[in-house]
Amino acid sequence: MNPENYIILSAVLFTIGALGVLVRRNAIIVFMSVELMLNAANLAFVAFARMNGNLDGQTVAFFVMVVAAAEVVVGLAIIVTIFRTRRSASIDEPNLLKY
Amino acid sequence: MAPLADAATDVNTGEQIVFWVTAILSVAGALGMILSRKAVHSALWVALTMVNLAILYVANSAPFLGMVQVVVYTGAVMMLFLFVLMVVGVDSSDSLIETIKGQRLASILLILGIGILLVWGIGNAMVESTSVGLDGANDEHGGNVQGIANLIFTQYLLVFELTSALLITAAMGAMVLAHRERWTARPTQRELSEARFTNGSHPGNLPNPGVYARHNAVDTPALLPDGGISDISVPGPVRARGDERSFDRVDIEEVRAISEGETTMPDGER
Questions:
Q1: Which of B57, B90, B123 lies at the terminal end of a domain, its last residue?
Q2: Are B133 and A54 an interchain contact pair (Cβ–Cβ within 8 Å)?
Q3: Mutate which of B11, B64, B134, B164 to disrupt the A interface (most A C-beta within 10 Å)?
Q4: Count of CB atoms within 10 A of residue A83's CB?
Q5: Which chain A residues are within 8 Å of B148, Cβ to Cβ?
Q6: ipTM
Q7: DSSP at B213
Q8: Is B97 inside any structural domain?
Q9: Boundary of a domain, candidates B73, B90, B107
């Protein structure tokens, strides 16, 4: 088994996350799917770092985690704010900008 | 480039077992997140995936990232998700009605295409890849943590500084977004107390049911000082079923007469 299996697993997880973003309509679940995609990318970074034999990939994965944490904080705050005004966490509801 | 036979040298049997177990579990977690209708279940499935990814990081000779994954993702991020789920409402499950016609089918087809493209493309590109392994890089500065620290504080120092700016901005943004402006003065304790009493509700204990010589069950209403019946002394469910004992004034008179010795108790009634 080559470490390429890790890359394929990461591709599968990324694909499932993308499916979740497209199919689910609860904003929080969409957000979890985005997190899953970020994690899949991290797994690819870590596996590539191992295949190339240097730690740059792991460092980048570390920074991705930091950015993901910041993104979660702001995104969840936005979801809570929208929920406060619209009483709903569905991503079909915030359509005020459309009209 | 090393020949193909040497490509798979740094993956031993134990790691293969770990890989297959955690890979299956993490894919199951990801699928469970998509397929479960309740958001809380989705969050728990994602937590499973994150833990398994942490194990995979450790297997990929990244113990530091594995620990960070456990602490940051399963510890902080998923718990934050659960907190927000509690705020937004646990029972906020998805509606299954499609607002855009055919969106679900189209997105599944699209995702199948992306998946085939990624897996097939990677599989093609990696047939001749080699794996150097991280043992050398990890040992260069005395360990994995030291190696990453060396990179962060030399080559990626600017990125690291920018990260701090990003975190401060995110914290400020979250505070601004979650802040609610108070337009009226905060109610005092006196105002709260008055509001509690003036809206017609009964803030204290309800009166007990009546206790009499013949009846003391909860379906017996208590008497008010004017001799009327206190309806709220009977529990609501009993009242709703119509099981409230109808109050018979003759009963009271009879009991009074018996207790004062004016008459004797009629036969057949005990």
A1: B90
A2: no
A3: B134
A4: 20
A5: 55, 58-59, 62
A6: 0.91
A7: S
A8: no
A9: B90
Q: A96 CA to chain B: closest CA distance, Å?
A: 16
At position B158, the amino acid (one-letter code) is L
What are the distances in angstroms from CA B214 to CA B54, B211, B230, B231? 72, 8, 18, 19
The string of pLDDT tens digits covering residues A41-66 is 999 999 989 888 889 999 999 999 99
CATH code at position B30 = 1.20.120.1200
Q: What is the phi/psi pair of residue B265, to 5°?
A: -70, 135
Cβ neighbours, 10 Å, residue B71: 13
Residues B174, B165: Cα–Cα separation, whole Å? 14
Inside any domain, residue B160? no
Q: Which residue range forms the structural domain that includes residue B264?
A: 204-270
Q: Do the domain assignments include residue B105? A: no
pTM as predicted: 0.74
Q: Do B177 and A80 touch (CB under 8 A)?
A: yes
Whether residue B137 lies inside any domain: the answer is: no
- In three-state form (DSSP H/G/I as H, E/B as E, the rest C), the secondary structure along B236-262 is HHHHHHCCCCCCCHHHHHHHHHHHCCC
What is the count of structural domains for chain B?
A: 2
d(C-alpha A35, C-alpha A32), whole Å: 5
